[in-house]
Predict the 3D structure of the following.
Amino acid sequence: MDAHTRKRATGRRAIAEVRFTPVLVADPPLLNVQGVHQPYTPRLIVEVVTEDGVSGLGETYGDSAYRELAGPYAALLTGHDIADLNGLFTLMNTVEVDGSRVDDSVDVGGLRGARTADKLRLSVVSAFEVACLDALGKTLGVPVHTLLGGKVRDSVEYSAYLFYRWAEHPGGAGEKDDWGAALDPAGIVAQARRFAREHGFASFKLKGGVLPPEQEVAAVRALAAAFPGRPLRLDPNGAWSTATSLRVAASLADVLEYLEDPASGTRAMAEVAAGTSVPLATNMCVTTFGEIREAFLTGAVQVVLSDHHYWGGLRNTRELAAVCRAFGVGLSMHSNTHLGISLAAMTHVAATVPDLRHSCDSHYPWQSEDVITARHVFRDGRLPVSDAPGLGVELDRAALERLHRRWLADDGTLRERDDAAAMRRAPGHARWRTPALPRW
Ligand code: GKR
Ligand code: MG
């Protein structure tokens, strides 16, 4: 049966309408090596509606490069069978990508590794793949995890994502919260205690690359004292030289579950890995299938943190899991500021990966806003795997409209994630530039 015949045979599953809505979501002043999060961060919410009126939801990064690709791509999807997931990739390859949007440098805003045309395409397809899986699950009356082969666990564990942060954004911009500042070991431990109390998280990741390494080592030591035996991670997003990475690894070897992207690039990571017994994890040097070979053959990473957006969706994440398994490399999940649709998608795919040995990352507890009607609730640091048809989340149209109106009202400043620009708005940082790596 050729593609055309197949499409007609499954007409009621054909996509009748595609909607994609850019939104700006409140984000606290979380610090990282590039700078600080802006008061609002862009996301793109995707909806496909079938001829039967079944709608499916997806979400991805919202900066203009993604939006501008989503437009022409969405236009190709009318009539497409939601079950033809492979066809989503074929169609994307017919869309032109503006060459000025991509290069081999590290994505400065998102800390997502190299900016390549492929990754941009896959990040957009992923939102539509998730939306099609959601709609297909609803059509067939099965959860997304069933479409991926079935869950092997009933809940997925997440870790607390700790950040150095300010009490508020420069000039009091954005939404307020009651977390206060965390700029030293005591502040980080207090943050961790609140995460443990409110969400039950039992493992902790500290976003590093903000303060000189000795201060971040002291914070991890304080966490180890406050939570003896709990898995701890430190992630400076490639901010350290090989020598600094090895020094930090040596001083935290007894307490770290893994060290995440201590140095920038596969070669530097391989040098670090050769000099320490601490496992290295990455969401920066292995972000595409093309980067796997060198990294795995040189032993540069022991855990890949998959981000289903830039790996191209949930089925690609499962393929990545299989490759990792073959090489004895662990798999867990990376997070960037995201909403409940993506968290649901992560939870479904994580539920189907047999050897998920590390809790997944999520920024979700930092997000006070969402576009779904019922927020996800972590219990004992875990999310239950939904057995409802599709993803098991429902769109809150009023919330979507509100966050979209905020996006419309923005003069363009916040439509691109730019942590360095946000830093320059802080008193005393007017001359801040994205630091050259390694910074220490
Ligand atoms: O939210 O500042 C942040 C993180 O630094 C994020 O952008 C990274 O992509 O969480 C990510 C990571 O693990 O590197
Ligand atoms: Mg990371």
Remarks:
- The pocket of magnesium ion (ligand 2) is lined by residues 235, 237, 260-261, 283, 334 (CB under 6 Å).
- The first strand starts at residue 15 and ends at 26.
